[in-house]
Amino acid sequence: MSVEWSFTGPERGGGGRRGRMFDGGELRLLLLRLIADQPRHGYDLIREIEAMTAGAYAPSPGVVYPTLTLLDEMGLIGEQQSEGAKKRFAITDAGSAHLAERSEQVAGLLDRLRALGEHRERTDGAPIRRAMGNLKVALSDRLGRGECSEETLHDVAALIDEVAQKIERLR
What we know:
61% of the residues lie in helices and 11% in strands. The chain is built from seven helices and four strands. The chain has helices at 26-37, 42-52, 61-73, 93-101, 103-123, 126-144, 150-169, and strands spanning 3-7, 17-22, 77-80, 88-91. Helix 1 crosses helix 5. The chain is elongated. The two termini are 43 Å apart.
């Protein structure tokens, strides 16, 4: 089973790209590990993964719930008594043994999700995207009027070049 994910960012023009976040049994291992930390229901698991990635990735319920059913059928988790209609799952002894046998793989999965979250936090340039949008509007308004002399066009280009050079030199 592979899980599709979508990442949309300014460097991709907002169009998004799809790729495989998990291969094979990786999602099963991740969900099992999170359930081992504390009993959870499906939406708790989705929110936890989304938090780990700073919002860059959240598995869909259409992938999580069948995986939980499979883990339950494999005897790796079991349904716990919970309030309301949500099924909450806890890890079984067999699930703990399964995790222990795959501890290095699980550690790699967690590292990968945390790295994705750290990347997202470093590159979430909302203020920069806002400022770039403001520049685009200002340029469109100024140039759209058709009243720009050759000298004004060169002045605008020089300002943009100057800002670009200053940004390149930032530490």
